[in-house]
Amino acid sequence: MTHSTTLPRRHLLAGSAAALGALGLAGWTGNARAQAAAAPAAKPLPAYAGWKTPEALIVHSTSTLETRRSAFGTSVITPSNQLYVRNNLPAPDAAILDNRDAWSVSIEGVKNPRSLTLAELRTLGVETVATVLQCSGNGRGFFPSKPSGTPWQVGAAGCVVWSGVPLRNVVAALGGLADGAAYLTGTGGEKLPEGVDPLTVLVERSVPVKALDDALLAWEMNGEPLSLAHGGPLRLVVPGYQGVNNIKYVKRVAFTAAQSQARIMSHGYRMSPPGSKASPDQPSVWEMGVKSWINGPLADKGALKPGQVQVHGVAFGGTRAIKGVEVSVDGGKTWQAAKLIGPDLGPFAWRQFALPVRLEAGTHVLASRATDTAGNVQTEQREENLGGYNNASWRDHAVTVTVTVA
Ligand SMILES: Nc1nc2c(c(=O)[nH]1)N[C@H]1C(S)=C(S)[C@@H](COP(=O)(O)O)O[C@H]1N2
Ligand SMILES: [Mo]
Fold this sequence. Notes:
There is one protein chain. By secondary structure, this protein is mainly beta. Helices cover 9% and strands 30% of the residues. It contains six helices and 21 strands. The protein starts with 8 loop residues before the first helix and ends with a strand. Residues 1-37 have low confidence and may be disordered. The protein binds the ligand Nc1nc2c(c(=O)[nH]1)N[C@H]1C(S)=C(S)[C@@H](COP(=O)(O)O)O[C@H]1N2 and molybdenum atom (MO).
């Protein structure tokens, strides 16, 4: 993919045949093909994520790696070496993994506040939960308003399995919540740049204290000790909440009366209406909404042959399970119920879906629309906002494929 093209940026960022199809360029011909051939070499993986699979990832920058849509596969779990990465600050030195058990986290806003080491946490309980980890900016690349920030398409997300201690066990061991706890606030353990107000850079996020029911202090992901890239040695996992609330290298967990004063909380990640300025009274990106997208067939390997295909993808409902997914092969004019396939890993995981359809010669716009167990249906349109957050529009996530008779 290239930025040096005459196509509108939005369509390029959509990247796939969906965009080209919308422009009548399905089949990837002419100018677009020439531009792609001339595209600069992909950026290399940054050192702290050098163990990842380069073919599966789009390297936007050293702190933003995106999973390719074509890499998601159909077996539920996103392999760690294909999972997206997003760091707001440079990752800490890898030396913090040298002695994992010595890592300590300060627990505040409980009756008996104190620091606990990871070794101590391991004694307080263990639970395993599968969650969708998704950046709230996933799908930003589809906003025509071109919000600043990484133009993620679908790949700032994955479904992974965490293991750690339920935070409520830790709270119970420290005498329970102190009075007046309204928020659960987690603080990242990065070294802050010098010479700037710490609150402008600190990664500290607050979520409503009800998230304590499901929150985990996790030290393991997908069966391995948590990597540095994904927040090792210890991460606060808030199932069903947008990625930014899942604090990596967590060094402090506080139950607070007010939300964090850090800029990433007060002004960042707010659903600011177009034309407004970000402000603390606008909704924060907390629980994820119902969303799905198709991962295949895609047009990245060229035109398809007429015949049966398995239209497949992923669907999730944030804190609620998925009830069903409909698939359209005519751009949303008509819909058919897809089948949920594979293991159900609980309400916070995504479900795979598939629908066998026959595609004849022509251009087809494939879309998916999920419904959660509360009856919320994935919306057709995104909610416009300054930051390009929370895009769950089924139309934006549609893909166009071309079928030709050889
Ligand atoms: N300490 C810390 N935690 C963090 C961040 C960060 O920069 N520092 N980024 C957040 C954001 S914006 C996202 S989307 C997720 C990304 O998680 P991942 O890199 O493991 O995929 O981590 C969140 N937790
Ligand atoms: Mo994010």
